[in-house]
């Protein structure tokens, strides 16, 4: 059930295991990578294209936290949960670097729904979100537990 561009709010009642959501795109350039890194992750492989050539990454690479921030922006737009995308834990990996010129998009899948025993108005929803580039390469693999609420009657 892709919702790109759809602003309808989703409630727990609207979700089912196996549903997939596709985000819009975010083009990334060197200026964005450097600006983010200067403020939040000031390491040469994120801030200096020349110095980055001599590092593990062999060229300018976005901070993983920059990739995560863009992923969050795309998730909020593509899975418009009624009370917000509220995290309750998760794991993240970055199997390949995000580079200038990459166009990011996120494909999310609902993996599980566990109703709360003490709060019947909510559940824990497990999602897996793959951040992909224009070549369908996985740049980030993010599995999260989200708090999702039922629609009030």
Outline of the structure:
This protein has helices spanning 30-40, 44-47, 49-52, 64-78; strands spanning 20-22, 26-27, 86-93, 103-115, 122-132, 138-149. It is of the alpha+beta class and 153 residues long.
Written description of the protein model:
- This protein is an alpha+beta fold.
- The protein has one domain: Thiol Ester Dehydrase, Chain A, CATH 3.10.129.
- The chain is built from 4 helices and 6 strands.
- Strands 1, 2, 3, 4, 5 and 6 form a 6-stranded antiparallel β-sheet that branches.
- It is elongated.
- The N terminus is likely disordered.
> How large is the count of helical segments?
4
What is the name of the CATH superfamily? Hotdog Thioesterase
Q: Under the CATH scheme, which class? A: Alpha Beta
Q: What's the helix-strand series? A: EEHHHHEEEE
Major β-sheet annotation: 6 strands, antiparallel
Q: What portion of the residues fall into strands of 2 or more residues?
A: 25-35%
Helix coverage percent: 10-25%
Cα-to-Cα separation, first versus last residue: 24 Å
Total strand count, please? Answer: 6
Q: What's the alpha carbon Rg, rounded to whole Å? A: 17 Å
Can you tell me the overall shape? elongated
Class by SSE composition:
alpha+beta
Q: Tell me which CATH architecture applies here.
A: Roll
Topology:
Layout lengths: L19 E3 L3 E2 L2 H11 L3 H4 L1 H4 L11 H15 L7 E8 L9 E13 L6 E11 L5 E12 L4
Antiparallel strand pairs: 1-4, 2-4, 3-6, 4-5, 5-6
């Amino acid at each position: 059930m892709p919702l790109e561009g759809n602003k309808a709010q989703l409630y727990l009642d609207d979700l089912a295991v196996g549903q997939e959501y596709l985000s819009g795109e975010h083009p990334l350039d060197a200026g964005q990578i450097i600006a983010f890194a200067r403020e939040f992750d000031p390491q040469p492989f994120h801030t200096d294209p020349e110095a980055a050539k001599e590092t593990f990454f062999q060229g300018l690479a976005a901070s993983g936290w920059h990739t995560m921030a863009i992923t969050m922006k795309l998730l909020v737009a593509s899975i418009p949960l009624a009370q917000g995308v509220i995290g309750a834990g998760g794991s993240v990996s970055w199997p390949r670097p995000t580079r200038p010129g990459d166009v990011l998009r996120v494909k999310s899948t609902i993996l599980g729904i566990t109703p709360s025993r003490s709060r019947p108005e909510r559940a824990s929803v497990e999602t897996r979100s793959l951040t992909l580039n224009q070549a369908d390469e996985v740049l980030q693999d993010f599995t999260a537990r989200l708090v999702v609420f039922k629609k009030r009657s």
